[in-house]
Design brief:
- This protein is an alpha/beta fold.
- It has two domains: about 140 residues, Beta Barrel (Lyase, Ornithine Decarboxylase, Chain A, domain 1); about 240 residues, Alpha-Beta Barrel (TIM Barrel), CATH 3.20.20.10.
- The chain has ten helices and 20 strands.
- Strands 1, 2, 13, 14, 15, 16, 17, 18, 19 and 20 form a ten-stranded mixed sheet that branches.
- The longest helix is centred in the middle third of the chain and has 17 residues.
- It is elongated, with a radius of gyration of 22 Å.
- The relative contact order is 0.17.
Length: about 375
């Protein structure tokens, strides 16, 4: 049964939302037009199937926007995510794209939800999969290759993936089961260099050559970046062009391709309104923080920041964006924990103070997904901006 989504108020603009709601709790703003734009980039530009990585934002609010924008394939990394997607969208195509699955998950995914794509990166992972889904001829099994750390902010190969030599051997095992052998990799999260995909695809080409097994598909993974301050993000078509040109050098240049955008499909579609509840000199205290929507900023090596603006209600109740000389503020969250502070100063107009609203853009990825109810705070207000 589909979980209900409570009705969300609609507003023509961010200013109108602030004026009408005067939110004292954090407020997520959905922008349907931005979701459509992000989906169109991949549906029109990527030369294959784009799988939305559900982990980036598994809320019904985001999933509904992504489905409405035309995305039909989903990168689901747990049985829970598969159930979430299939219960909401029965016609969705789920791909179980993790090499470590909980006991019984592959069996249920295959028998109940018709999932036929799975990932392995070692003999034990393959053995477990075949024990649960013995009818291998109905499966497409992707062997995951670990990629070197390159242009991504966060690496994603130290936990999963194997060497090209070992992957080639595993591909041989997969082929002998009757399953369709395929390869997958992940260049890392927030990749700022399209060339990292060329390197990964070259690894796939060498792996296929060593395996002497024709690949049924190639999944180039995720890593497509979000538009954060401090990160120099290339145009998306550079990534697609690089992937297309690199795949042309493979044994089968027409090989079916997949990718797993998460951040790139949902980041821009959500903004967040927070309230400054106290100002002490160069310190601001707001009603959301690192235990809520801002956890990702605290990751080791993370360099991106959310675009932010300050807003104030005037005497007539109209919301206006603050201007003026910039000033760096130390911004704290609402909990009693000293660690609940944004890791870098936030530059705002120097007049920013008590009762002002901060509007943080590009907040759709890994914000709502990892929020906690620590200390009794849990951001969960929603509104729609535009259509």
């Amino acid at each position: 049964m589909n979980a209900p989504v409570r009705p969300m108020p609609h507003f023509a603009s961010v200013a109108q939302a602030i004026e009408r709601l005067k939110p004292t709790e954090p407020l997520y703003l959905l922008f349907p037009d931005k979701f459509r734009t992000a989906a169109k980039r991949f549906l029109d530009g990527f030369p294959g199937d784009a799988l939305y990585a559900v982990k980036a934002n598994p809320t019904y609010q985001a999933l509904d926007q992504i489905w409405a924008a035309g995305v039909r394939h989903f990168d689901t990394a747990s049985l829970g995510e598969i159930e979430l997607v299939k219960n909401r969208f029965p016609d969705a195509i789920c791909h179980f794209m993790t090499p470590v699955r909980m006991p019984g998950a592959a069996k249920t995914a295959f028998e109940k939800y018709g999932v036929t794509d799975y990932v392995v990166d070692c003999d034990a992972s393959l053995d477990k999969l075949l024990a649960e889904v013995p009818d291998a001829k109905k499966l497409r099994i992707f062997v995951r290759v670990a990629t070197p750390l390159g242009g991504a902010i966060l690496e994603l190969s130290s936990k999963f993936g194997t060497t090209p030599e070992e992957a080639a051997r595993l591909l041989g095992r997969v082929a002998k089961t009757g399953a369709a052998p395929a390869l997958t990799m992940h260049v890392g999260s927030q990749s700022l260099s399209p060339f990292t995909y060329a390197q990964a695809i070259e690894m796939a080409r060498r792996t296929e050559f060593m395996a002497k097994v024709p690949l049924a598909a190639l999944d180039v993974g995720g890593g497509f970046p979000g538009p954060y301050l401090g990160n120099d993000v290339p145009p998306y078509h550079w990534y697609f062009d690089t992937i297309r040109e690199s795949v042309a050098q493979m044994n089968n240049p027409d090989i079916p391709l997949l990718c797993e955008p998460g951040r790139a499909l949902c980041a821009e579609g959500i903004s967040l309104v927070t309230l400054v509840v106290l100002a002490k000199g160069a310190s601001l205290y707001m009603n959301d923080g690192t235990y809520g929507s801002f956890d990702e900023l605290t990751l080791p090596g993370w360099t991106g920041d959310y675009p932010v603006s300050a807003w104030r209600l005037d005497a007539k109740g109209s919301a206006r964006k603050l201007e003026g000389a910039p000033k760096p503020f130390r911004v704290f969250g609402p909990t009693c924990d000293t660690l609940d502070v944004l890791p870098r100063p936030v530059v705002l107009p120097e007049a920013t103070g008590d009762g002002d609203f901060l509007v943080w853009d590009a907040m759709g990825a890994y914000s709502v997904a990892v929020r906690t109810p620590f200390n009794g705070f849990y951001p969960d207000g929603w509104a729609v901006i535009g259509d």
